Amino acid sequence: MGGDDARLRAVVSLAQTMAAAHTPRGCWRAAALGACEALGGSFAALSVWERGPGRLRVLVNAGERAEGEEEFPDEEVYPVHRFPEITEFLHERWAGGGEPDAWVETAAGPEPGEGGAHGYGPGYCHQRVAALRRRGRGCCVVAPIVLHGRAWGELYVARPVGAPVFGRADADFATVLAAVVAAGLAQTERLEEVRKLAFTDPLTGLANRRAVDMRLDEALERHRADGAVVSLVVCDLNGLKRVNDTHGHAVGDRLLERFGSVLSRCGAILPGALAARLGGDEFCLLAVGPGADEVVAVATELCERAAGLELGNGVACGMASTGDPIGPGVSARRLFRLADAAQYRAKAARSDRPVVAGRDGEVIRLADSPPKPPHDRRRLRGSHPEA
């Protein structure tokens, strides 16, 4: 892309598309594609430096990917020691502050003495050159990304063999783009922190009621669309008040945390299940896809593990599932009330196993559950049809 106006538009477009992304992956993809287009490349990648293991991990590959390159690779990593230019650019040359400059590598490699004049990296980086040749690319520009005053990773844009080689002006522009990407990444981090606070229980680290409401709405939409089984397990931790009164609330909080860990561990048996704390001593497990019998088995294991918690007195566990005969037209409110009623039955009977709505040929009547006060903190957000 040539011309100052065109490059200014590219910078604005990159910032806007990253700001519009709703997930980290969306942000990474927008960054790579925007930089690729701005620099007239055919391929771009965004990578993060992992200091602990000393490696560069690729987050996204965008554009014309070579064979074996995945858009969001799980384990595409490169040891730092294979890239000697990183040490110089992110440590020595950056020691004086400011933004580190981008550099260019070509499949042919720079000639001796050519680097400084043309913006090439410090010394001959045979690893990058070998990668360019292996993937049929002619040149690349690499721009370090600085986030919160620290080296975060790099932006990599390549052109195919036969395309014009990146020059000094391209490297300078890549440095500008890397700064824009850093600003977009910082915004995404802030949004993720807000999202985590909004949908996470601060004591246990599990999801909270707001997260359950949203996931349950989505789950029931899927159930109506393709018949996916939706199961809800509601748990009431027995004996918490006694623990609080006898040993203090700090000990009670530890009991809640331990049960949260047990719930999370059991929930992990069910692919994609959501473990949550509804508030107080009430928890739930939401599963979408697995059959009702699978969820009952997990709920049974949950009861068994909860019974072994120190100072606790087990858990009362109720379950409602669209995979059982609980009637047509299931809403989020109805599923919760059925699971609540089953949990109330379990608590009244001091059952050490889950009580399941609709099992044994009879749907548990909602009248069996105690009335909730008008200020019920567990009320679903928004309005749902009454059961």
Could you characterize the architecture of this molecule?
With 387 residues, the chain is α+β, with helices and mostly antiparallel strands. Helix content is 42%, strand content 20%. It is built from eleven helices and eleven strands. The chain has helices at 4-20, 24-38, 84-92, 115-118, 126-134, 168-199, 209-226, 240-247, 249-267, 292-307, 332-348, and strands spanning 43-50, 55-63, 77-79, 103-106, 137-147, 150-160, 230-237, 274-279, 282-288, 315-321, 355-356. The strands form two sheets. The protein has a six-stranded antiparallel beta sheet, sandwiched between helices. Helix 1 packs antiparallel against helix 2. The longest helix has 32 residues, at 168-199. The radius of gyration is 28 Å and the shape is elongated. Mean pLDDT is 84; it is low at 92-96, 111-123 and 367-387.
